[in-house]
Structures are given as structure tokens and as C-alpha cells.
Amino acid sequence: MQNLSRLAVFTNVAQHGSFSGAANALNISKSSVSKQVTALEEHLGIRLFLRGPRHVQLTDEGRALLQHGETITAEYAQVLDLAASLKGTPSGTVSVSMPRVFGFSVVKKYLGDFLAQYPQLKLRHGISQNNSQQLSRGDDTDITIVVGEQPDSSLICRRIASLHTSLYASREYLQQHQAPRRPSDLQQHNCLPVDYPNIDNFRLWRLIEQQQAVEVEVDGNLIMTDVTQVIELVQEGYGISMLPDYAVREAVAAGELVQLLPQYHGPNIPAYLIYSERRHLSPKLRVTIDFLTDCFRTEGLLED
């Protein structure tokens, strides 16, 4: 059992490329990581890493062992998850990655009650680049949320939200530029599109009025993939953008942003919760997935 723990430490060092990276991921000291790797090397009688000042590099023997080590530790993790599911008590750490705007606007205010309900559970929240591929890269992410069209993924993909969008600008911008009166007027403005993944031609804005749609090709001097950054730029008067209504409702209520062409709305942007397919879903993952789903439903973003 001791060597199994050392093997898990070894695979983490290989995945992160350093002792410090593995120490942060495992929440143990760097010296403990180094000692366990050294003990495993002595037990096996081979050298696993070439050690540098900041990074380590696998030896040929280390690369050969890593292929088997990852399989063994993954299967052992499934054994632990199965045992936990039989006990029925959610415990351990769940790594959740999502776009920055979701962490603050949707999930954060419900975290306290959730963690109080499951005191043995820990959440590690990371900011994603809106990419489902991180779940298959071995970076310890259990659940990720992406915005845009459904990704082509072999993982489990659950639609968790449908984000209504509208046009917004700041009062400062409107003091310097005449507000658009019709969709075609947008071509005379600096527009800030959001480059959502898997959505073609993000500069082509589709505006809908009473089920009638009109498309406008817009242009601007900034293109962003982070909705939160676009919101900040719009608030600072950089231009007009089509934004999720829920993400700017506080700014609208405070008078910082103004909705433009209110008779029109943009297309709904889907958001998906993605996680690895497992035959026995552990209690910690099950309750976290249910929690995230409930957050979006409570906020009125999940269409049943």
C-alpha cells in the first residue's frame, strides 16, 4: 500500500513536470514529494527522473513505468470511489473548472450552504479557457463547464443552461455616440464580439424580434474569449456587445449599462456541464453535479 501511494506521487510529478506542482496538487509538502519519489526509486532500483533546478524530466525507465503507473493509480481511484459510494458519504476533493463569469455570478453565493451540508467535501475551483479537452489531458479536473455549442467529446455532456442575450453599452459610450435605432446602425459602432468556442462567425450578430430574425455583420477593435473581460470593457465605454442578460443585470440595475434595441434579443447561448464517464459515479461527484445543476436552475438559467 505504501508503494501504491508512492506510485501515485510519481505519476503526479510526471504530469506536472515538477515536485512543487505535484505538491500543490496533492496538498503535501515539496520535501514529502521528493522523499516518496526517492523511496520508490530505491525500492525499484531504477532512476525515474533527471532532476533540474525547477523542473524534472522522466528517464527512459520513468517513461516506461508511467504508462503502467497511471493505469494502476486510476484503477485504484475507481476502487476508492466505489467504496465511498457504498458508504454513501460524499468526501474528498472535487476539481471544478468553469469560465470566470460563472464562478462569481452563479455559483459563489450558494457555496456556503453546500459546503456546510457536506463538511467532508472540498471544492477546488479553477478558471477554464472554455475548453472541454482539459478533462482528457490528465490535469486532475473532474468537472468542467463550457459555453457555446456542444463540444465533440467522448465525455458525458449535460446541457446546464440557456443564456439569453441582448445588446448593451455604457452611459459613457452613449454620451459620445448616438444609440443605434435599428440593427443596421450597429455597423457604425465599435462592437465587441465574444468568441465562443464551436460557434462559427462570431462577428455575425443575429437579432430576433417576434420570431423574425435579422443578421448584422459587425466589426470592432477588440475580440475576446472571456465574457467577464468583455463586460468590463463595455462598462468602461469601449463599445457595444451582445451579452448574457443574467451576467449584467446588476450593472443594469446600478445604471452602469443600458440595454439597446430592447425590442430585439440575441440567440440563446448554451452552456454544458462535462465530466468523465464512470460506471460508478462517486458520491462527491454526484452531489457536486446536482449542486451545480441546482444553481443554474435557481438562477432561472436552466430550461427543464
Automatic annotation (TrEMBL):
Domain named HTH lysR-type: which ranges?
1-59
Q: Which Gene3D superfamilies match?
A: 3.40.190.290, Winged helix-like DNA-binding domain superfamily/Winged helix DNA-binding domain
Q: Which family does it belong to?
A: Belongs to the LysR transcriptional regulatory family.
Name of the protein: DNA-binding transcriptional LysR family regulator
> What is the species listed in this Swiss-Prot or TrEMBL entry?
Sinobacterium caligoides
Q: Which GO terms are recorded in the biological process aspect for this UniProt protein?
A: DNA-templated transcription
User: Which Pfam families does the UniProt entry name for this protein?
Assistant: HTH_1, LysR_substrate
Name the PROSITE patterns for this protein.
Answer: HTH_LYSR (PS50931)
Presence of the UniProt keyword Transcription in the record: yes
